[in-house]
Amino acid sequence: MSPRQACLQCLQRDPPALFEAALWIAAEHDAQLQPARVLDELQGLQLQVSAGLPALPARELAQPLLRRLAELDYQEDDEGMTRPQHALLHKVLRNRRGQPLVLALIALELARRLDIPLQGVNFPGHFLLRVPGADHLLDPCGGRRLYTRDCRDLLHRQLGPNIELSAAHLQTADAPAMLQRLSRNLRLLHLQHDDALAALKDAERVLQLGPPTLVDHLARADVYQQLECPQGERYDLERALLFCEDEGLRLQLQQRLRGLESAAALH
Question: Which Pfam families match (predicted)?
């Protein structure tokens, strides 16, 4: 079974094996990774975390769990330029530096093992967490509480001051949505670091994990362009046209397709 097949199979379980699925995503980029071994080794971190938790009801332990992870030096990457290693789960576990989403995946798995209620929130630009029914969200990078005003300020920092906070920004993320977001992050990071073959793996996975978007098809078309694969590029441009409602962008896509057809005719 390939890492991709193993990842998708994890999502078929009830409940989905989110953490293991994320490890199989990492295994697509690291042939030496053995997810089963990482799952076993996580028991050590679980013991470290649980030993530092206060004697409180389970629903009050989400923030202490996140603070305990911060005490153990699990932090958001601080190198200035994020690298693929900051979105690969096994490397974040080893180096203790990662994107908010990957830190959240670690926290969610520990919470699951310790019977602490915790959910992911697909907030734009900075993945967040929530305790079901709570009036606040939690930052996976240290456990800070975010109320409505804090979420609005964070949204403005991520997307600009003209964006209004809405319920859509605060939706709970299920396992496929989290893995699709992780795959999009990896796709971008691999492209930024000139690894188009790795980015193609991520771009393909994005389209398998959930409903594709115009942006997802355009992103894979750009990867195919870098890899000089006009057939793949053409397919994704044609799919993108089906999603596109902006007339100006439609004209650009049609022009790009004509350019591919002209190049093919010359050969």
Answer: Transglut_core2
Same structural domain for residues 85 and 211? no
Structure tokens at 259: 């350019």
Token pair, residue 119, equals 């959910």
pLDDT digits (tens, 9 = 90+) for 161-190: 899 999 999 999 999 999 999 999 999 999
pTM of the model: 0.94
| Domain span including residue 196 | 175-266
The answer to whether residues 98 and 52 touch, using CB atoms and an 8 Å cutoff, is no
Domain match, 16 and 134 both:
yes
CA distance linking residue 133 with residue 165, whole number of Å: 19
Strand duo 75-76 + 97-98: pairing: parallel
Q: How far apart, in whole angstroms, are the C-alpha atoms of residue 95 and residue 85? A: 9
Per DSSP (E only), the strands in the chain are 75-76, 97-98, 119-121, 128-130, 137-138, 145-146, 172-173
Alpha carbon distance 159, 170 (integer Å): 15
Amino acid identity at 145: R
| Under 8 Å between Cβ of 140 and 129 | yes
